[in-house]
Amino acid sequence: MLEIKDLHASVDGTPILKGISLTIGDGEVHAIMGPNGSGKSTLSNVLAGREDYEITKGSITYKGKDLTELSIEERASAGIFLAFQYPTEIPGVTTMTFLKTAVNAQRKARGEDELDAVKFLKLVREKAKELKVEEDMLKRPLNVGFSGGEKKRAETLQMSLLQPSLAVLDETDSGLDIDALKIVADGVNRLRAPDRSMIVITHYQRLLDYIVPDHVHVLAKGKIIRSGGKELAAELEASGYTDMTESAA
Amino acid sequence: MVATRETVEAVDEAVGKYKYGFSTDIESEKAPKGLNEDTVRFISAKKNEPEWMLEWRLDAFRRWQTMEEPDWAKVNYPKIDYQDAYYYSAPKSDDDRPKSLDEVDPKLLETYEKLGIPLVEQMALAGVAVDAVFDSVSVATTFKERLAEAGVIFCSFSEAVQDHPELVRQYLGTVVPVTDNYFATLNSAVFSDGSFVFVPKGVRCPMELSTYFRINEADTGQFERTLIIVEDGAYVSYLEGCTAPMRDEHQLHAAVVELVCLEDAEIKYSTVQNWYPGDEDGKGGIYNFVTKRGDCRGDNSKISWTQVETGSAVTWKYPSCVLRGDNSVGEFYSIAISNNLQQVDSGTKMIHLGKNTSSRIISKGISAGRSSSTYRGLVSVHKKAEDARNFTQCDSLLIGDRCSAHTVPYIESKNPSAVLEHEATTSKLSEDQLFYCRQRGLDEEEAVALLVNGFCRDVLQQLPMEFAVEAQKLVGISLEGSVG
Ligand SMILES: Nc1ncnc2c1ncn2[C@@H]1O[C@H](COP(=O)(O)OP(=O)(O)O)[C@@H](O)[C@H]1O
Ligand SMILES: [Mg+2]
């Protein structure tokens, strides 16, 4: 699915990612953990193709192709989805309209017919129900005045409608209480599939009790300092990042 | 809901930079070039007008000659040579007026189709009566019978002069006086045609009335004159759509619209204006100098102006309400989009004269390219206007960093009981929002269209359904190429 080789990236001339290599197979779920400021969001922005993030070295291959050749929207239509750590407010555009616009934009880019309004509505209602997203929320402008939990559920709803091949979840657990966390994790788990891979970024081990990863990587200061199975998360929980970063240094 | 409905579909359908940029080759009859008393007489004679109408025009012309073109607006354009234009142009087939659509020049109908208003279909589907004005002469008026049953008069201004002279004489120039301003006075002298609406006491007009104006002839100034009278307890919703072919030279458009709203009556006037804005380098485009004013003459009357302005090289336009009747209400909802080298100086005037009058102004200005957009608004509360209220909200959105937006609110209050609120914001289309939308699969132009439609939602919601969709498309088209 995804192969990242020796990736270096800078923001405004400041090097942030300093040689990341990562291989993600079809259907695999990889967790990336690390302290604040270690470069987790930077990595997700680089994968999504954000323009002010400059790749200075290395390569990213997605489904056998050079990902860096694609624009942001081309990546999206090719199946890359980023659940934002801080979802942006879209004033005046209802969640429903936004969802429809996004789904149809991707369908159009892939040469598929747009969904008709009735079918689409049915689909959204079904998915919304699973994520306990109220009808009322669909009528409100996207993310405007949403609580932390609502924002994360809205991100998960978008993901379940867009059916990506590679989902990058950036701290989808932050700011959620345990009930909200379970709802979101259930939503994510429902999307696990042999042809869908995920990168689950988190600061805390807690999320990984609900979304159990195949692999865990620890990111510190722009580098992956350790990789392992899901037991690595538990180890981190016990010893903390400081130990690990120090022992790696 | 309406506002953001099917935005992407709307954007998808909208192809081409300025899809109305074609001109129709129909022989036309023009007044000789230039402007003098003979031009005025020619126009009046062509229309077979009564003596009083000719005298009214001549009086306006003589006054106009003593007036100066205003220069206070924040717009720049080369001096207009009023002698270097034609003031009357009518399709030849005019002498032989069509009695039904079958008799209309097929070329004209083709033009309407290119404009996206297949007349027959639109009538059937939307139940909208279309008084289509092609250049200066009204060529097809439909649904007249149904309206006549309700007692509503909806016809071209010229017809009204012939068939309802007493109404025209009673109301013409009573809202916008002949000498109101330079462009209105010019219009009064040489107006070609326009619409006339009369809704009698207690009648709720059974359908939306709609007029498409179109400038076709090169070098032809377009001077519409529209007069709408709504009697006690009556209601009408009137829509006007404007578009013009692409030409290298500038064309002048100076319209006058007068609304008379009597006791307990309501007028909703909506405009979607996309006159040709000129090209990327500012070549060509319409100079749009328009005087629109509504008079809430009766108690409890209400006038709403809603406008979506995306076209014209230069816009000078301030649809206003005179709140004369007690408890009368004036509203102004506006979206003004400027791109490339367009210049917009627009806003409204709310003149509070009666007691307990209220007004509401929501203005959304979107500037892109190297354009300049100014909101200029006046809220004036006169001495006797006890308990007047106004709420003004002016939001400007900038796309890119070469455009500019200005807000010039004038507030005059001579009555201490007035409550006037003014809010203004200026924001830039944010990189975060664009990135978010693009990450979901929208390309840059779709993203801009979606975000701008969201920004304008409060105003788009005021538009009748049929227009809201068209307006959303326009937002997309007019901002093409504004980012990246
Ligand atoms: N736009 C930016 N300009 C400059 N530095 C940035 C920018 N964004 C992030 N950084 C820096 O990059 C580092 C990594 O940030 P980030 O990827 O957000 O970390 P994480 O998501 O792991 O908390 C931090 O030191 C942060 O200050
Ligand atoms: Mg982060």
Feature tags:
heterodimer, A: alpha/beta, Rossmann fold, six-stranded mixed sheet, four-stranded antiparallel sheet, 9 helices, 40% helix, B: 484 residues, alpha/beta, 2 domains, eleven-stranded mixed sheet, ten-stranded mixed sheet, 24% helix, globular, binds magnesium ion
Strand composition percent of chain B: 25-35%
Biggest sheet features of chain B: 11 strands, mixed
- When the domains of chain B are counted, the total is 2
Helix/strand-derived category of chain B reads alpha/beta
Determine the strand fraction of chain A and express it as a percent band: 25-35%
Structural class based on helices, strands and sheet pairing of chain A: alpha/beta
Number of helices of chain A: 9
Overall residue-averaged pLDDT value of chain A: 92
Order of helices and strands of chain A: EEEHEEHEHHHHEHEHEEH
Query: Low-confidence parts of chain B lasting 5 or more residues at pLDDT below 50?
Result: 1-22, 92-98, 120-129, 134-141, 213-220
Query: What's the shape of chain A?
Result: globular
Q: State the oligomer.
A: heterodimer
CATH architecture of chain A: 3-Layer(aba) Sandwich
The count of strands of chain A amounts to 10
Helical content of chain A stands at 25-40%
Average of pLDDT of chain B: 80
Biggest β-sheet of chain A: count, sense, barrel? Answer: 6 strands, mixed
The unique ligands bound to this protein are: adenosine-5'-diphosphate, magnesium ion
The CATH topology of chain A is given as Rossmann fold
